Amino acid sequence: MTQDRTIDERIGAWLREEAPDQLPDRVLRATFERTQASRQNRTVLERRPLTILRTSTAVVGIAALAIVAFGLALTLTPLRGSIGGPSTSSTLIPTPTASPLSFDAHPQGELEPGSYVLENFEPIRITFTIPAGWSKFHYPAGAWARDVGLGFETVDNVYIDPCRSDLGMHDPPIGPTVDDLAAALASVPGWDATTPVDVTVAGYAGKQIELTAPGAWDECFAGESRLYGINNGTDYTLALDPREHLRLSILDVGGTRLVVSASYTEAATTADRAELQAAVDSIRIEP
Amino acid sequence: MYSTEQPVQRNVVEAAQGGDHDAFDVLASTAGHRLFAIAYLILRDRPRAEDAVQEALVHAWRELPGLRDPDRFDAWLHRLIVNACADQGRHARRWSAEVRMIRSEPTTEDGANSIADRDQLERGFRRLKPEQRTIVVLHFYVGLPVPEIAETLGIPAGTVKSRLHYATAALRAALEADARGSVAPDGKTA
User: Fold this and answer.
1) What is the pLDDT of residues B5-64, one digit of tens each?
2) Is A12 an 8 Å CB contact of chain B?
3) How far apart are CA B134 and CA B139, in angstroms?
4) pTM score, two decimals?
5) Cα–Cα dist B122/B116, whole Å
6) CB contact set of A252 (below 8 Å; sequence gap of 6+)
7) Residues of B in Cβ contact (< 8 Å) with A137
8) What is the Cα–Cα distance from B51 to A169, expressed in whole angstroms?
9) In this structure, what DSSP letter does residue B139 have?
10) Rounded distance, CA B108 to CA A22, Å?
């Protein structure tokens, strides 16, 4: 029967079948709660062009970068070096809030500046601090702003070839240690990788490696360049921007191999990267 | 096409632009279901689609005063939902990772696809890149012509045509592969 129908008709019919009928009322209620509490923007008349691939976030003013620095006399040990460049001693570090907000309970979207606690890697409790202009995403758990992102994930296995995800991941899977993962990532074909070096984040030792995505992956299987599987096989990480940088700190936190992913695109400015570095430096981890 | 909704009234949009919450609630309630359908089709994930709709609508409220032509409200919303989906995908890193189980129950809709069609379209669609999925949804579901998609997304019409051509060809290939019976159970072409 279907052979007589045009491809356009078949695609259209399938999409109509697949489309849900109703937006749940709770979504509209939550939306209205937010709009009731939100002012309209009556000053910004010029918008940045919106494209599919590039994120568009609310305009983040200079104020976001003018967050008062505070002495990190906390229990932190910062990463060696900074994100995407030499260390900037004048890095503007976000101010932690006295009582961290629950990151897990926060809806997806814009985050208020301050400290957040992430508890979905039980029993590990992660606290980090961000300035204005950052938003939440779910997988990997983390936050982003403009062209930088900070995520936390547990990596299960690594794809044999990111461009050939149809080949799957290593079988048998890579070993469970920090060194196992660092070694596997260091030899991922198609991505540039630095030599893993020792790192300490929030008092936990591990290895740090920086991976740079390929310039294109249009010809890859499924049009993707997949790097590794995360969070008990529920998801995977893939290249999103050509030449995107992933600085991964692989830590052993009481037997859990936790990966702190600090990412930035080629478009990230020095200020963006400094802001990301400050967020990384603010991380605290409690087992 | 996607809906039998009436176009929004210009005066309702203007009232919302002036800060009238009730007017905006009318607009959001009217558009919400359509935006949800678009977001779900692109993202293939209900929770993320719900998040995308909420973000798009909140963004719409905040930026509505800057909408120069109230008659373009619907097109503007399409842009917002597409970008909200892109944000969901980009930062969730799982545009393509969402692999929903394929439904197996028969449809009762007239003119609907066979189960085999649906399976193959699902697999073919899943393999498309996010920008290709978006264009497929805007064209075949929302019913937008190429120039309007180009304007909505802020990309050249040629790019839209190219992506649409590729996506359609890929979906056709998926269906033809099924017809030949040469598709393995895991979706990989033989």
Assistant:
1) 455 688 899 999 989 999 999 999 999 999 999 999 998 888 889 989 999 999 899 888
2) yes
3) 9
4) 0.50
5) 10
6) A177, A178, A204, A205, A206, A258
7) 88, 91-92
8) 31
9) I
10) 19
